[in-house]
């Protein structure tokens, strides 16, 4: 089953120069699709378009058989609920004035009327927060702390917990390990893998790190200068048919 279909997507910031140039991708239910490329290639711009932060100049984003551009208010709200994100910088993603439990409760409180959770149970605010912290392997005591009292790895686990709290169909992970040390990077990738198996979500994992993408994802797409150059199953990474730029990335992999 296709969760999201991206067709011929275009986005420009300056006339005559496309930041995203005719990109087409599909994301299947329960899969991790990795999007890899050097900084400035258009990966994060694509992510912002998918999140509705940026308006697209052409093409379409189709979710649940409905083009996002044609979605009514109810359909767009359903999209917002089912497409969550984890950004590179967890410090910037968390409100410094809110305790961790406040950040974790916010998505549920926004969408509680539409929610039918399968894996988490909301019987009380405290109990719900403790379930989420346990899911990302953090002690329940952290719910009463502020973001500045946590390490970078802990804060990123909190943003992951917030993203999974309403059991979305897709999480867009935009360089989620880039700001972490090597040990924390590996641990977060393992956590993301186990959460995907538990919750049956799809990931679009955006990174400049091919090794991280290879570890987490079943399919890999390669971008350069706004264009999608290559897309393949992970096991085909060393196939001779790979694009020359993909081979260049592999050489430093």
Automatic annotation (TrEMBL):
<dbReference type="GO" id="GO:0016887">
    <property type="term" value="F:ATP hydrolysis activity"/>
</dbReference>
<dbReference type="GO" id="GO:0005524">
    <property type="term" value="F:ATP binding"/>
</dbReference>
<dbReference type="InterPro" id="IPR050319">
    <property type="entry name" value="ABC_transp_ATP-bind"/>
</dbReference>
<dbReference type="InterPro" id="IPR003593">
    <property type="entry name" value="AAA+_ATPase"/>
</dbReference>
<dbReference type="InterPro" id="IPR017871">
    <property type="entry name" value="ABC_transporter-like_CS"/>
</dbReference>
<dbReference type="Pfam" id="PF00005">
    <property type="entry name" value="ABC_tran"/>
</dbReference>
<comment type="similarity">
    <text>Belongs to the ABC transporter superfamily.</text>
</comment>
<keyword id="KW-0547">Nucleotide-binding</keyword>
<dbReference type="InterPro" id="IPR003439">
    <property type="entry name" value="ABC_transporter-like_ATP-bd"/>
</dbReference>
<feature type="domain" description="ABC transporter">
    <location>
        <begin position="4"/>
        <end position="250"/>
    </location>
</feature>
<protein>
    <submittedName>
        <fullName>Peptide/nickel transport system ATP-binding protein</fullName>
    </submittedName>
</protein>
<dbReference type="GO" id="GO:0055085">
    <property type="term" value="P:transmembrane transport"/>
</dbReference>
<keyword id="KW-0813">Transport</keyword>
<keyword id="KW-0067">ATP-binding</keyword>
<dbReference type="InterPro" id="IPR027417">
    <property type="entry name" value="P-loop_NTPase"/>
</dbReference>
